[in-house]
Structure formats: structure tokens, C-alpha cells
Amino acid sequence: MKLPIAIITEYLAEWNPVSHFITSDDQLMFDTVSIVYSEQTLFLNHSLYVIRSEEELANMTSGTAVFPGKLSSYPKTVNIIEIDYPDSPEKLCSEINQCIHSYSNWAEQLNLSIISGCTLQTLVDQSEPFLKNPFVIFNGTFDCVAASNNITEDDPLYYDVKKHGKPSPETMLQLSEHNKNRKVENGMFYSGKKYRLSKGIADHYEIFVDFAADGSLSYGLNLRFKYHPISPGLLAVIGIFTEKLAQYIDLNHTKDENTGIISFNEYLFPRVLDKDPDAIKLAVNFPPFSRDYIIITSNSSSFRGISNNILSVTPGSSLFCHEKRYYIFIPTELSDEKSFYFIHQQEKRIAEVSSAYQIYIGISGPVIGYAGLESACVQAVHALELSDKAYSHTSDNEYLLLYRDIALFDMAVHYSEHHQAKSFAPLGYLRMKEHDKKKGTDYCAFIKTYIMNGCNAAATAQKLFLHKNSIIYRVDKIKERFGLNISSTYEQLLFLMACITDEAIKE
After folding, report:
1. What are the structural domains, with CATH classification, of the chain?
2. Which of 81, 177, 214, 238 is the most buried (most CB within 10 A)?
């Protein structure tokens, strides 16, 4: 028979892995292949939809289809193809690939085959041709895949499926071993009917595994599950245990510290920080490192718990853990005139979450490339630890601690490890410092405050609760007594850096 399949291409304003998890009933066949283009904040989504009726076909071609779990209001194109089902799975694979290649050659470059494994049961039964490819992708709206036809009383699925309609977590753990003698081989999973492990999406953990295709796009494989630890058998059951993925995932890794979105980045980023040669080879051409990004972190024990709130509002972000500290990777863009707006929007989204939960978040400056990951993580930590040394506050949110606000002090700390302030400080500063030390005066601190307020007497007076004329008189006397010259911006900078470096040495 002929089976019509619609391949829908649509642009989304924001892309969130959770939005791809369709909570439709078991009868609805829907699979998603996500191709994320780095074009500002637009994301291209390819969807495969098995058409079951003339009405559905009419809706598809008219462009008014309501997708399961969401209403698409963005521009989209629809291509309808017909495949012979179930006679020719090879033809299905070929025709779907051919259609998707009309938008992008990414699958051809990686020699990927895109098929609807959880939807078309016969393809699983006739899956041998697809095993010849290096990486067969099964992608869809499934939590797990279980036997749908030949369930007997000795089958671990029997009690749960026949009497309750779904397998329990304990049953699925048994399945990881049980299916070894079935059709679970090389990442192929068994049979075609899907079951939900719980009623709500909030009860699930998410997996989002992304692979680089070339410099401009990446591929996402989205699954849900509710197990820990991650075992090789379980990975096979949910359809992602392949040779390619196994190279990068530690199969002994448990979910004790990762109870939310598990991404490929969670495994790559910490290894880059540890300077793992294999990870660095992979990171060289990894798309997220090809654009500017910031790193955020927090000292709060609640940071891991609220991370999903941040991930859901910052497109392209990813959580990872290194040396027992959690970080979030957030892409930005500095290459065009909209860069300030984009970074400001990302910071605004983070600020809303931090204010709602009242936790302090340190934010690094923007960096690019895998080599910048370590410095960005350090900057985010320093933004937290040195927040009381901030010499400006460029954020209106008290819970947002920006590295650029403490950058001067941080630079002084590094400088003081090898040099003293006297090596570059103005002579007037050195005289004032010695006088303060012997007489207990505060001339250096006073002039520092004066410079920090733009050498403006009125602003300094307001800061120190003094009269404006008192500020002018005192500045003139100090200049005359110690031979201080702060008339030029360069002299002001040297004086300020000398003060900060001495503070760093005391620290």
C-alpha cells in the first residue's frame, strides 16, 4: 500500500528541547528531526508526519495543520511524499533522505539515515539494511520502546502492559537485559509501540544529544527517560546506544548529579576543561564554540535545581558540571549591530530567574572558541567571589554579578602576583600612601573615590556626605602637598590601578 508522509519545514522564533517532546496519544505518529541553524535566533525544524486520512492531507497542504502539543504560526513549507509500506524500507529511507537533502546536505555529509523507527514497526523488523550505515538515527516522541504484539505471561512487560497499559521503571530495567536476546543490537531497539513512563512531562528526565554536522548547523536527538544509573542495556532500549555515541559517554555515569537535561555538551565541556586530547579534537569544529558565548554559575545550592528555568529561556544554552560546580553555557553574538540587544536580552532572562529565586549568579564576559571555556568559567566564579570589589554596577539587578564590574580588581590580583604597585604608581600616590601609613590619614582612599566619580566634586560630595566646596578645597590641598597630577586620564588610571593593586596584595 501507499503511505503518505508529510515533511514539514518551519521556522521557530526560539528553540527549546522540551518543546519537541510531543505528549500525544499512542496512535499519533509523529517524529521530529531538528536542524538548528546559527542565524540569529531563528531555528529550522524538520518534522515527519504520517498522514492517516484525506482530511489530514488537506490540512497539511493548506498549511493550517495543528501539530500535537503546539500550534505552529510561523512560515512553513510542506512536501508530501508517498512510500511503499511495508514492502520497501530501503525506499522509505532513500525518499525521506532525498527530501531532507533538498533543504540541507548535512545527513549526506555524515552518512546518516533518518527513519521513523518508533512509528513504522515493519522497518524495525526489516532493519538489517540500515545497520550498514555508521549511525542509524531513531528519533521521535517515545519514552521507551517495547514489544507490542508477542507479549506472553513470562514477558516482563506482560503484567504492566496488559493490566496497566504501561511498563513500570522496574520492568524497563529488566527489559534492558531481557531484550539482549531479541532485536536490540547496535543501537536498534525492539518493536514499535511506545509507552509513557509517567503522565506528565515534568515527571521525566530529558536527554538532548547534539552532533556537529558542519560549521553552520547541528543535529539534535531528543529522548525522555526516567532511570538511573544509565546502563548500556537501557541506552540500547531507548535507542541511542551506538558506537559513535559510546565513544563520548561514560556508561558508568549515574544521574545523581544530573537530574535534568543530559546533553552531549555535559560530557564534552568538562573534558575540554580537563584538556582531554580527544575532547579537544572534537571541540575544534564544534558549532557552539564557533560563536561568542558566556558562562554563568552560582554558589547557591539551589542553582542546579533552577537550571532548567534558565535553560528554557536562553536559546542554545547547556548545563554542565566540573569539579562539583555547575555552569551554564549560553551563546551570544557579537558579529553584528544587534549584538548588544542580544546579550542584553540573555542577561535580562537570567536576571528574571535569579530574582525570582533570590540567588546570586556570576556571569563571565563573552569569549569564543573552546580555548576560552576555561577563562570564562574562571571569570564567572570570580564575579561571585569578588563581587564586593566591584567598581561599577552595569546591571540593574542586584542578583546579577557581572565579571566586567570586577575586572579591574581581578587584573590587579594577577598583576600583584608578579609585581608591586610601586613599579608603575605615580610618585604622588607613593608619597600619599606613606603618609597614610604613618599618620593614619585616608588621602589615597579619598582621591580614589574622587577619580571613581569622574573627578566631579558634586558627585564625590554626595558619595562622602560632604559639601561640594569641601571636596574642591581638599583635592587642591592634596595636589599641592604631594605633587599629585591627575589632570590626564592616563594619570588617573595609573593612580586607580595602584590603589587596586595594593588592595589585591592585602587580600
Report:
1. 2-245 (no CATH), 257-415 (3.30.70), 421-506 (no CATH)
2. 238
